[in-house]
Design goal:
mainly alpha; 0% strand; 166 residues; 6 helices; flat
Length: 166
């Protein structure tokens, strides 16, 4: 049996899903009206830049400290309701990734100035990706160093035991 909080959370998730579908349809219609037709193709280089820009926007909203204040505006300790659902969305990289991609694609096809913003975000996205990669390499090296140290201690303990027995 579902409790009240889960029922409310499901209700808000349903409403946000309907809202997203409406916004998606409206965005497609808006692009059609503004451009005189539907989206047909995107040059691969532009698609890559939009993807990198979306990556950066997603990290900015979901993970970066600078936007924590915004996420915390919706932090609802009750664990249900509108604010809780918005907080969940702002903490979800898949959700924000989808929304940011939608906004960036619409901006790319409708507003000429958007290309500069997308390019800037893409460059920042590459920087973020490099930083994440370097951090991952460092964490992996640190983990291996700790594992080797642990194995050395275990081997030394075996050597010490066998030396005592002779």
């Amino acid at each position: 049996m579902h409790n009240h909080n889960e029922t409310q959370e499901n209700w808000w998730n349903f409403l946000f899903s309907i809202f997203f579908i409406i916004v998606l349809i409206a965005a497609i219609w808006f692009m059609k009206v503004e451009r005189g037709g539907y989206l047909i193709s995107v040059p691969p280089y532009d698609a890559l830049l939009i993807a990198l820009a979306s990556f950066r926007v997603t990290r900015l909203i979901v993970y970066d400290k600078i936007s924590r204040w915004f996420r915390n505006l919706f932090n609802d300790q009750r664990g249900y309701g509108f604010r809780h659902t918005v907080h969940d969305l702002l903490s979800c990289p898949w959700c924000i990734g989808f929304w940011s991609a939608l906004i960036l694609v619409v901006a790319y096809f409708v507003y000429p100035w958007a290309w500069s913003v997308i390019f800037f975000l893409a460059v920042a996205g590459v920087g973020s990706y490099i930083q994440l990669s370097v951090n991952a390499i460092g964490w992996l090296a640190e983990k291996r160093k700790l594992e080797v140290g642990k194995k050395e201690k275990e081997l030394q303990a075996v050597v010490d035991r066998t030396s005592l027995g002779s």
